[in-house]
Amino acid sequence: MKTKAAILWELNTPWSVEEIELDAPKAGEVLVKIAASGMCHSDEHVVTGDLPFAMPIIGGHEGAGVVEAVGPGVSWLAPGDHVVFGFIPSCGRCPSCSTGHSNLCDMGALLGTGKQIADGTSRHHAQGQDISTMCLLGTFAHHTVVNEASCIKIEKDIPLEKACLLGCGVVTGWGSSVYAAEVSPGDTVVVVGIGGIGANAVQGAKLAGAKHVIAIDPIEFKREKAMQFGATHTAASMAEALPLVQQISWGTMANKVIMTMGVGSGAVIGEALALTAKRGRVVVTNIHPAMEYSASMSLLDLTLMEKQVVGSLFGSGNPRADIPKLISLYREGQLDLDSLISKTYPLEGVNDGYEDMRAGKNIRGVLVYS
Fold first, then answer.
1. What pLDDT was estimated at residue 264?
2. Which residues span the domain enclosing 209?
3. Are residues 173 and 285 in contact, defined by beta-carbon separation less than 8 angstroms?
4. Do residues 89 and 44 both lie within one domain?
5. Does residue 42 contact residue 168 with C-beta atoms inside 8 Å?
6. Closest CA to 307 of 276, 266, 271
7. Which PANTHER family match (predicted)?
8. CA–CA gap between residue 137 and residue 143 (Å, rounded)
9. At what angle do helices 198-207 and 220-229 cross, to 10 degrees?
């Protein structure tokens, strides 16, 4: 079939919206008509080369839609089902999946190839070439073919333009607080960077019972939104936050510091540790450039104060369990998905959406397809 998609042909160039040829699903695969896709900063990392994925590539990894067809062997999905894509597939059988850590599924090793899990070939083609897909999904498109391992079935009454956010940003941010940081009732928590991930880290910290949630962002609009999502205090920088955290914690500092900046920097890890209490934890969720191999920090501080620096992928969550869980919290009014969406765009507006993201105008822009 023919459909439309946004393709990145070269680094540091605009997304090109054009017609593509999409093959039918093969064994274990699913054809999905996509309703909406979040515009995550990770796709920007592909544009800049911070994430070295195979090109040309169809962007988008935060999507939701309706199943139109299934390939041989797919028994649990049928045409008409509503699905959210998990940006990391989960096989359910590898050591990580079998111990409850499907965010680290062995299939994730294939993400950078952009080819189908089953046979390593492409279902997406344009200008006579095979086209890769971001995170094996390619949600900057009206249709896609994905492996069933990337699909999570949801109830049909959930708006798909809200549900798509659960494919990455919401679970990643919320889980960074609840799972990776292990925020406990009464904790003082700092969230550095209030975008699509940081806003949900704030929500997760609040729901976990944090006493203080300090949101740090240089943009006033984002600091104001953080208060709406549950922050108790804000600051424009980590330096500005330091005396604030000292004051409200009576000098003990933050139990948890969660790094959710648009682009991570090893140069600021030391600042994050300075905000951290004895036996406190810094969670590094934001993506750093692939070729960054150093971080500035006091290892003596790490040892003598028993501080921790940990990484977190997909919020250290389990997409098959956590996406339905967070949908239920949304239903009960305990998780705000509606306010995350700053603006919607058609597929043809993808470059406008990323321009707005770079300008700090959006918590999350969403592509909505008619």
1. 92
2. 173-312
3. yes
4. yes
5. yes
6. 276
7. ALCOHOL DEHYDROGENASE, ALCOHOL DEHYDROGENASE CLASS-3
8. 10
9. 30
179 part of a folded domain: yes
Provide the pLDDT for residue 32. 98
Cα separation, 151 vs 148, whole angstroms: 5
pTM: 0.96
Cβ neighbours, 10 Å, residue 34 = 28
Residues β-bridged to residue 65: 34, 83
When pLDDT is averaged across residues 13-35 and rounded to a whole number, the result is 98
* Whether residues 154 and 184 fall in one domain: no
Amino acid at 99: T
13 and 36 assigned to the same domain: yes
Q: Residue type at 72? A: P
Which position has the token pair 């093969």? 26
**pLDDT over 90 for what percent of the chain?**
99
Q: How many CB atoms lie within 10 A of CB 21?
A: 14
Q: At what angle do helices 41-48 and 350-358 cross, to 10 degrees?
A: 90
CATH of the domain at 281: 3.40.50.720
Average pLDDT, the chain: 97
Q: And the tokens for 258? A: 């969660």
Counting runs of H as helices and runs of E as strands, what totals does the chain give? 11, 19
Q: Which pLDDT score, from 0 to 100, does residue 167 have?
A: 97
- How do residues 93-135 score in pLDDT, each as one tens digit? 999 999 999 999 999 999 999 999 999 999 999 999 999 999 9
Tokens of 270: 């030391």
Q: Per residue in 196-218, pLDDT tens?
A: 999 999 999 999 999 999 999 99
**Type of residue found at 257:** V
Do residue 96 and residue 43 come from a single domain? yes
Contact (CB, 8 A) for 136 and 59: no
Number of other residues whose CB lies within 10 A of the CB of residue 202? 30
Which residues carry out catalysis? 40, 42, 45, 61, 168
Kindly state whether residues 51 and 106 are assigned to the same domain: yes
CA 126 – CA 21 distance, rounded (Å)? 6
Looking at this protein, which amino acid is placed at residue 53?
Answer: F
State the Cα–Cα distance between residues 217 and 195, nearest whole angstrom.
9
- For residue 370, what pLDDT is reported? 78
Mean pLDDT of the 326-337 span: 97
98 in a structural domain: yes
